[in-house]
Amino acid sequence: MTVTSFINSMPERAADRTLERVRRRELSKRDQQTLLRILTHPKGPNAALLRAAERCRDRYGE
């Protein structure tokens, strides 16, 4: 690879890295629907979380 071709390839490499970062942030349609469902219809706390909350109240009060 010549110096000129190396220098000319740098913007393309930077663009590729930028596009890859953007792609990683995008959710698929299925993931979007799942996230929306979880946020709009949250489940209650599970048993482990309830026990942890109880221990916290016991130690630090309400």
Question: Quick recap of the structure?
Answer:
The chain has 62 residues and is mainly alpha-helical. It contains three helices and no strands. 79% of the residues lie in helices and 0% in strands.
**Overall number of structural domains:** 1
The helix-and-strand class reads mainly alpha
Question: How big is the Rg?
Answer: 24 Å
Terminal residue distance? 68 Å
Count every helix, treating DSSP H or I runs of 4 or more residues as helices. 3
Overall 3D geometry? elongated
Secondary structure tally: strands: 0
Question: What fraction strand?
Answer: under 5%
**What string, H for helix and E for strand, traces the elements in order?**
HHH
Can you characterise this structure?
The chain has 62 residues and is mainly α. The protein has one domain. It contains 3 helices and no strands. The chain has helices at 3-25, 29-40, 47-60. The chain is elongated. The model has no long low-confidence stretch (mean pLDDT 89).
Properties at a glance:
62 residues; mainly alpha; 3 helices; elongated
Draw up the topology in text.
Elements: H1 3-25, H2 29-40, H3 47-60
